[in-house]
Write a structure and sequence with these properties.
364 residues, mainly alpha, 13 helices, transmembrane helix
């Protein structure tokens, strides 16, 4: 007699329910809620405008943002649960903060470009303001002065700042290193006008009171640049792995040569970026240059003789001392501001290209 064994029937297990993924809004839900919030807010302010008054665009966007945050949080809490609702709430707040931060930047850029293009011509970049009292003229003297003083300040501050950061990272120990770090922190927070007063007083000792020269303006800018260069370079040097230094020491390489051949090439991209950012930070200073370098309408290439103009001071004087017609002075001020912004953008672009070119992953 043959006995047939029947295999047991498989047990059906109940599906596993995960509370974190039980419900999920479609990907288009945030955009749909945002559109609905804008429509509701626009309808509300449209009805208010019909009663007598102008349409408040700023108020409409603020109300729409509040309606969106409340609506998306409530809907997400009902469908997705409290954890996902809190995530969407924080995401909405962060996105809103980013948009609010971008509004002044975009508005400033549009305003400067719109008004600056009125005098963004060949004459503006080839003529100075010598013997110009009305329309015409240019800012070549201010552009040259800005480049000369900023370049001289970079030549002064970069070696000092870089060697100071090398000392703090590689050699500095004890009270002297702590004292230097403290002084660098103090210099980082000093007002720019104090740097201008320092440079003015320093050169007044040797050349007499009332002396204003381009080299004095460069020294004032260098005082502001040095702490930025020290801090940025110090952080980049500390990021170099200790193993690279130890490998060089194991091969018998002296410490100074290790710094020159290993540490600096490894961190050169970050150091260059910090230096460019420090230059972009001081190139727009007005108060120290107004005190130390003064202002002139003529082109001056001599850093040690006579006053020297700069773009920030040129913008200030054109706006503060408007003549006839006032539109000509305002157009020159806006064009100089646009030129200064373009120079800063070019410096940042150069810094990014240098950082990309010298990055370790691309090789050297």
């Amino acid at each position: 007699m043959t006995t047939t064994i029947t295999p047991p029937e498989p047990k059906t297990s109940s599906p596993i329910s995960n509370s974190l993924t039980a419900g999920k809004l479609p990907n288009q839900a945030p955009w749909m809620v945002l559109g609905a919030s804008l429509l509701v807010s626009a309808a509300l302010f449209g009805m208010l405008a019909l009663t007598g008054g102008e349409f408040d665009w700023a108020g409409m966007f603020v109300v729409a943002a509040l309606v969106y945050v409340v609506t998306i949080t409530t809907v997400s809490r009902v469908v997705e649960g409290p954890r996902k609702a809190m995530d969407r709430f924080v995401t909405a707040l962060v996105t809103g903060a980013f948009i609010v931060a971008m509004i002044p930047l975009v508005s400033l850029t549009i305003t400067v470009v719109t008004f600056g293009l009125n005098r963004f011509d060949v004459e503006f970049f080839t003529y100075s303001m010598r013997n110009i009292t009305g329309e015409g003229g240019g800012a070549v003297h201010a552009i040259v002065g800005t480049l000369l003083m900023t370049g001289t300040a970079a030549l002064i501050s970069i070696p000092i700042g870089l060697m100071t950061s090398i000392y703090l990272v590689e050699y500095g120990r004890g009270r002297l290193a702590r004292g230097i770090t403290f002084l660098v922190d103090v210099m980082t927070g000093i007002p720019s006008i104090v740097a201008g007063l320092f440079a003015y007083a320093l050169f007044a000792i040797f050349w007499g009171p009332g002396t204003r020269t381009g080299i004095a303006g460069a020294v004032a800018l260098a005082v502001l640049m040095i702490p930025v260069v020290v801090r940025s370079s110090e952080e980049m040097l500390r990021l170099v792995p200790v193993e690279l230094r130890e490998a060089a020491y194991a091969l018998g390489v002296p410490k100074w040569l290790t710094i020159v051949k290993v540490v600096l090439p490894t961190s050169i991209a970050g150091i260059t970026t910090g230096i460019m950012l420090s230059i972009a930070r001081v190139i727009g200073e007005t108060a120290p240059l107004l005190i130390a370098a003064g202002f002139t309408n003529s082109l001056n290439y001599d850093m040690t003789e006579g006053r020297m103009s700069s773009l920030p001071v040129f913008v200030y004087t054109q706006y503060a001392n408007q003549g006839n017609p006032p539109e000509a002075y305002l157009d020159r001020a806006w064009a100089a501001a646009l030129t200064l912004i373009l120079i800063v953008m070019a410096l940042n672009l150069i810094a990014r290209l240098v950082a990309r070119f010298f990055a370790p992953k691309y090789g050297r």
